[in-house]
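Work Package 3 committed the consortium to producing structural models of liganded targets before the mid-term review. Because experimental data for this complex are still outstanding, the team generated a predictive model from sequence and the ligand definition alone, so that downstream docking and mutagenesis planning could proceed in parallel. The input record is reproduced below exactly as it was submitted to the modelling pipeline, together with the SMILES string for calcium ion.
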Amino acid sequence: MFRVGEFGYRFPETSSDTFRRWTERTSPANWIPSIVKTLRATLTALFIVTAVSIIAAPAKRPPNIVLLFADDAGYADFGFQGSREFRTPHLDRLAAEGIRFSQGYVSASVCGPSRAGLMTGRYQQRFGYHENNVPGYMSEVSAADGPEMGLPVEEKTMGDYLKARGYRTAVFGKWHLGGADRFHPLRRGFDEFYGFRGGDRDYFPFRNEPSDAMRKMERGFGQFEEHEGYLTDVLAEEACGFIERHADRPFFVYLAFNAVHTPMQATPEDLEQFPELTGKRRELAAMTLALDRACGRVLDTLERLGLEENTLVVFTNDNGGPSDKNASDNSPLSGTKSNHLEGGIRVPYLVRWPAQLPAGVVYDKPVITLDLLPTFLAAAGAGADEIEALPLDGVNLLPYLQGKRDDAPHDILFWKKGVRAAVRSGQWKLIRFPDRPAMLFDIEQDPSELHDLAGAHPDLVKELFYKLYQWEMQLERPRWMLKTQFEKYDIDRMDAYWPIGRK
Ligand SMILES: [Ca+2]
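The resulting structure, written out as tokens with the ligand in place, is given here.
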């Protein structure tokens, strides 16, 4: 009973209009043709509705996305990576049912920057996130320190992008992208959070106030609540609870385990599973068993709820194993966490999406965790143009994984921390050091980086060196920097795990 006024407002119809229509309808001369008219209109409407529903059938529900993220794991320390010591049956199954990347990289060899790249799909140095944000270790001239070191609020995260597409989003576990409130996950595109803001913490609940508030478990925003039990199991339980609560609509779970970062803490039951191992290696095996069990719990929940087929699951790890700290094994790669040898930046990396991707496949071309954001967006229904328009360094991997493209996803990849840097193009990798001339390796032939070919290919060295410089000219300066002493620490650590390093 409303009509549109001349300025777009709606006015109530007058009673005389209503009366006129009523008398018209009740006159026999009017109601017979009006039945025909109504019938015709109904049929036309029916036809339109049917046609529209055929043409624009409601889009298939976008996939759920589950990102299982490990911390500081060794390249070799999973069954699917060839380990005979460690037992990871659930992740091995994920590998068998999905795609394993044999050259999967992260964008940094340490926790914070690697996560900043992962979350934004951009080289984190573009926004000044060059160095690990570890309060207490920073240079006094850093522009930011403590909880003020974090992912700049102007940057959009995976959570922001997926939430805008209608996803329910959650983070469980380690954030490490800033301790100040403005960096909090609930302000960075995530609907739910149970975890800790910092870079590490105990696996068992704190009975006393920890020295660093960023180690406290927090539910939602500002509600600090220690867990009960072993954290790796608890994080999986939390993720499963979220999945069950939101099974009816697309969800994105970022399950960021602190496993297997130090401190070395395992349950007695898990330790008992490895009587043949000793010391830290035994502790790491037990912590990895728990990590695998936790991932298995999430995978089982997806299966039980009938969500397995249309859920894109990724498992990867934030940086190479720090073998000196947690006894992780990066073989056959040289190097460790915090350097640019393959052992620092190449990680175990799996993706499974039964509805859209092949199973039991190894994908051999270099990919990087920066690719996950555009890949998730494409899976969620974003068009190529839409993704192309975003300021991303990652690439949508779906066409490559579905066999629609057989070229390499990346012409070139870069890594940088201070003077130290690396560039990968085709089979070649150039590494720039602060204390020795740059070296060139053929990564396809020599993944262990034992044969420096810089002398044999001087033109290639020049070309890659210059490309690296051109990339560096696009970057922001570091917002914070570690004390200089850690530069020496990182170089010494690299050489200790590199047969041709300076000992
Ligand atoms: Ca890490």
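Reviewers should note the following from the model. The radius of gyration is 28 Å. These observations will guide the Year 2 experiments.
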